[in-house]
């Protein structure tokens, strides 16, 4: 009983003393380098990333069908790149259909498959589009 009372008074005293300690208000204006620690937050030397777009018709059969398919190497990039068949202007009253087999192998990718207005393509945004956005992320965790 005495041990319990002693512990309660000790905890109460610690709470009272902690409550009476006030933290100083600090301001950082960032008009100079604050000297904070940084880890892996800068590239050792600036490097330009090479964007490689190499896709379209191929005489391969990776998707399991006959020879002849669409495919190749696709780099995720802000600049639009596409391989498409032009069709007449459509409205929501028109039916749109597409079919096929998709084989996604090898490197990570990010691709949009569907119907779009080439005149409004703007970087990664896809206005005036009915599509599927497909991606295979970089595997970051290995056992």
Describe the structure in your own words:
There is one protein chain. By secondary structure, the chain is of the alpha+beta class. The chain contains 1 helix and 4 strands; from the N terminus they run H-E-E-E-E. The strands form 2 sheets. It has a two-stranded antiparallel ribbon with strand order 1-2. It has a two-stranded antiparallel ribbon with strand order 3-4. The model is unreliable at about 10-15 (pLDDT under 50).
Key phrases:
single chain; two-stranded antiparallel sheet; 4 strands; 13% helix
Provide the fold topology.
Blueprint: H1 2-20, E1 54-58, E2 69-73, E3 109-116, E4 129-136
Antiparallel strand pairs: 1-2, 3-4
Percent in strands: 15-25%
Largest sheet: 2 strands, antiparallel
Count of helices?
A: 1
> What is the number of strand segments?
4
Sequence stretches where pLDDT stays below 50 over 5 or more residues: 11-17
How confident overall, as mean pLDDT?
75
Which outline best applies?
elongated
Oligomer: single chain
Q: Give the structural class.
A: alpha+beta
Alpha carbon gyration radius: 30 Å
- Estimate the helix proportion, in percent: 10-25%
Alpha-carbon distance between the termini? 52 Å
H/E element order: HEEEE
Strand order of the largest sheet: 1-2
Provide a quick synopsis of the model.
It contains one helix and four strands; from the N terminus they run H-E-E-E-E.
């Amino acid at each position: 009983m005495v041990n319990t009372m002693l512990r309660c008074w000790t905890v109460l005293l610690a709470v009272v003393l902690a409550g009476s300690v006030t933290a100083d208000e600090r301001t950082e204006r960032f008009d100079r380098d604050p000297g904070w620690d940084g880890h892996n937050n800068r590239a050792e030397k600036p490097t330009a990333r090479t964007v490689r777009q190499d896709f379209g018709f191929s005489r391969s059969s990776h998707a399991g069908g006959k020879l002849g398919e669409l495919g190749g190497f696709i780099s995720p990039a802000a600049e639009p790149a596409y391989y498409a068949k032009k069709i007449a202007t459509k409205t929501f009253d028109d039916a749109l259909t597409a079919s096929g087999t998709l084989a996604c192998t090898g490197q990570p990718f990010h691709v949009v498959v569907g119907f779009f207005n080439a005149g409004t393509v703007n970087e990664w945004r896809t206005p005036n589009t009915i599509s599927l956005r497909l991606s295979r992320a970089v595997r970051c965790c290995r056992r």
